[in-house]
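Bug #2210: token dump truncated for 3-ketoacyl-CoA synthase?
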Amino acid sequence: MSTTTDSANGGGVQIQQSRRLPDFLQSVNLKYVKLGYHYLMTHLLTLLLVPLMAVIIIQASQMNPDDIHQLWLHLKYNFVSVVICSAFLVFGSTVYIMTRPRSVYLVDYSCYRPPSHLQVKYQQFMEHSRLTGDFDESSLEFQRRILERSGLGEETYVPEAMHYLPPRPSMAAAREEAEQVMFGALDNLFANTNVKPKDIGVLVVNCSLFNPTPSLSAMIVNKYKLRGNIRSFNLGGMGCSAGVIAVDLAKDMLQVHRNTYAVVVSTENITQNWYFGNKKSMLIPNCLFRVGGAAVLLSNKPKDKRRAKYKIVHVVRTHKGANDNAFRCVYQEQDDVGKTGVSLSKDLMAIAGLALKTNITTLGPLVLPISEQLLFFATLVAKRLFNATVMPYIPDFKLAFDHFCIHAGGRAVIDELEKNLQLLPVHVEASRMALHRFGNTSSSSIWYELAYTEAKGRMRKGNRVWQIAFGSGFKCNSAVWEALRNVKPSPNSPWEDCIHKYPVQTVI
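Reproduced locally. Full output below:
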């Protein structure tokens, strides 16, 4: 049997047979077509008004001065009707303007780059693991195979506490790691945007495994002396997809609170979550998780559109937690000797595939051109009515998106999404290179990938970006952004002094 490294939720799973995402060509269900129908019905009024307005404009363009004079006389002798219609028009326009969703802009973001002395090479990692004395020979060999096939390079970072012999995990060391990552990203973000911390109205922090008291969000409030009425949130235990959840929460808050900024901080903390046991399914995070974090500045101020990089278009969240297998497929627990770690189920990839399928069939009607939706519908109807062997048509998401930021949880997930979504190597290049350079940085990995695309000079005005991430629970979440200009990398980008080295050939 072959050994494959599979990963989602910011980790991977090493199992003794090859497991992959379900083949979407075999598993797409006709019931998902109703999502497109629902979207069509929701926007039916708009679709009907567009041709009506076109007819009115054409007719108006053909009017001569006599026609206009006759129209004026008609309105003059029907003054009451004109006033009533005008009142309804003004009232309707006011209601529409007041209730329509406000545009939310991504002004800028910053990814933390750790100092070079925290880098760890393969050989150093293995030698250090051996010298701790906590791992038997089977576990050491297992970790060595994981590293060889992981897609990680020789320049990823582990926290300070893990560089000591023996390692020194502690609450104080974990706080220090959190401060370095969060404050490092935020300092750079505030410097690049010239936004004062006192101007921040909403703060959302997500970190899955480290949730001290006071919270991480309180640490930020204390450090930057944020205002007393700030609306702060601290999300824990939500895995590597929590970055999209945090953005969605901030977006919703900006729909309610006018003329303000929201900051989202996405990170993971490794110091106290290193596993020192020999259970194979719990050893994967040691090999893949690395230090990283990102801070994102969002705004609902119309004036910020001129300087913002992106506008948020859609957020689609899928939760499979009602299913017991999905709920337990990424599970923090103790092993047989009482050592705590995150256990990854052998069914992880299959569950991730089901979550992804549901997510993209919800997202598809929102982003795909009508031609793709019609082809998708037609082939499904043909399969149902005429020939059971007809293969369902998988929509071409390359027609909807210009760039893809697939969570860099591990090489296997990137490989399978590339295959199932029929992407080209250039579409997954950012994900592979982020994994190679920085490792699995959990919920912040999608921002390192976006920064890679910008550093390569590929982001043009009007381009659409699809960020997709998996998380424990089990969740699959997507965020869609539209570039408002030709986006250049911000100062102190994590790729600033090394982008010329990429792409590199990764281990296959």
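Output looks complete on our side. The CA atoms of residues 202 and 262 lie 4 Å apart. Marking as cannot-reproduce; reopen if the truncation happens again.
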